[in-house]
Amino acid sequence: MSTLRINGHDYYAVLEARTSLLDALREHLQLTGTKKGCDQGGCGACTVWIDNRRVLACLTLALAAEGREITTIEGLADGEVLHPVQQAFMESDGFQCGYCTPGQIMSAVKCIEEGHAESDADIAEWMSGNICRCAAYQNIRDAVRDGRDAMRQAEGELP
After folding, report:
1. Who contacts 75 (Cβ-Cβ below 8 Å, separation ≥6)?
2. From the centroid of its chain, how far is CA 156?
3. 51-78 burial, b for 16+ CB within 10 Å, e for fewer?
């Protein structure tokens, strides 16, 4: 029996040693917000955080995440209140089909927190591991900038 701490809650599952964190989330724990894109680490759709750092869930073994804090898109909002970056993606229309959006948002929050969202060039570079097959990149960059400003305002850094 494996115990995974996800979004502040403990989840228990019987997992094979080769089960990826992505498959554990989606197939064993029914946390389907994290998407399976390429299943090879090339698209970023499966981006989650482990111990507050971006990781690709498709390339991470679930058992390697035991004892660590995992955050998925389901854990980003505060109850019914969306995270500022989630809100910015909605307001900036930072998605088209929406399939890549959870991974984009998870990566965007870290991009902002890491200080890599000061220019469009920085955003494009530090978000380059997250592919949007609909090519909504300008709207995604707009959402990252708007989310950055909203996060700073919430933290009292902006008026």
Report:
1. 6, 7, 8
2. 24
3. eeebbbbbebbbbebeebebbbbebbee
Q: What is the DSSP string of 19-77?
A: -BHHHIIIIIS--TTS--SSSSSSS-TTEEEETTEEEEGGGSBGGGGTTSEEE-GGGTS
Q: CB-based contacts of 16: which residues, under 8 Å, 6+ apart?
A: none
pLDDT value for 156: 82
Q: Which residues contact 14 (CB under 8 A, 6 or more apart)?
A: 1, 2
Could you give phi then psi for residue 116, rounded to 5 degrees?
-110, 30
Q: Give residue-wise pLDDT tens across range 2-45.
A: 999 999 999 999 999 999 999 999 999 999 999 999 999 999 99
Percent of the chain scoring above 90 in pLDDT? 94
Query: How many beta carbons lie within 10 A of that of residue 155, not counting itself?
Result: 9
Predicted TM-score (pTM) of this structure: 0.95
Structure tokens at 79: 């109850």
CA atoms of 32 and 94, how far apart (whole Å): 20
Q: What is the DSSP letter of 157?
A: S
